[in-house]
Structure prediction request, 77 residues.
Amino acid sequence: IDGIFGDGAVPPKEDVYLCDSEVACMLKVSRRTLGEYRSNGTLPYYVLGGKVLYKRSEIEQVLEREYRSVGKARGSG
Prediction:
């Protein structure tokens, strides 16, 4: 690994999958609200073995995108 990233670059971190309760806690919403976010396409998700999972990196991207759009809306007034 040092040979590959010997130039000081940070190696990509392994993506972590989160369950409903972890994402609900992270976003401070109910699990029902997560279901609505899945239905309307707000949050990307995966179903593995009948269990709904979310990639942490994708949740963080959604948060960043939404944060930016709120900031633009506030700044335009």
